[in-house]
Amino acid sequence: MIDITNTPIFIQPVIDHVTQKHHGALVSFIGTVRDNAEGKRVLYLEYETYPDMARKKLEEICAEIGNRWHGDVDIVHRVGRIEVGDNAVIIVVGAAHRSEAFIACQYAIDRIKEIVPIWKKEYYEDGSSWIGHLPINTGT
């Protein structure tokens, strides 16, 4: 399952989807919105994306994990306005052994941040700032 959504996301449906009898390990990562960054109070975040390209890149990450660690992976990322405490991204990896599942899960979040066109803007009491790469102009 790969999903990009503007609605709240929850771990259990992702776990249920990944779980297979041949898995000896399930490892999950839940990225949540924290209330502070760089010494500033965070009020909320906004994520923007180029959906078609983001899905394509998420599919590439899942294929890489399947090829390297023989793992199954689901990734769900939220976009739009996200409040403090809400889940922003959920990754669940199922693999035969725990070491592969842990490595693959770490790899997934690192690759998402490297190659997937999803951009984060943090809003503070005194303004806002883009975190990471700035959005590209997609012509829309």
Record keyword descriptors for this entry.
140 residues, alpha+beta, Aldehyde Oxidoreductase, domain 3, five-stranded antiparallel β-sheet, four-stranded mixed β-sheet, 3 helices, elongated
Task: Produce a short descriptive summary.
By secondary structure, the chain is an alpha+beta fold.
Low-confidence runs: none
Termini, distance in Å? 27 Å
Reading the helices and strands in chain order gives EHEEEHEEEHEE
Query: What's the story with the biggest beta sheet?
Result: 5 strands, antiparallel
Please tell me the total number of domains. 1
Kindly report the average pLDDT value.
94
**What is the CATH top level name?**
Alpha Beta
Fold and architecture overview:
This protein has helices at residues 11-18, 51-69, 98-115, and strands at residues 2-5, 25-32, 36-37, 40-49, 72-78, 80-83, 87-95, 118-124, 127-131. Strands 3, 4, 6, 8 and 9 form a 5-stranded antiparallel β-sheet that branches. Strands 1-5-7-2 form a 4-stranded mixed β-sheet, with helices on both faces. Helices cover 32% and strands 40% of the residues. A hairpin with a 2-residue loop joins β3 (36-37) and β4. The longest helix is centred in the middle third of the chain and has 19 residues, at 51-69. It is elongated, with a radius of gyration of 16 Å. It has one domain (2-124): Molybdopterin biosynthesis MoaE subunit (Aldehyde Oxidoreductase, domain 3, Alpha-Beta Complex), CATH 3.90.1170. The protein has 140 residues and is α+β, with helices and mostly antiparallel strands. It is built from 3 helices and 9 strands.
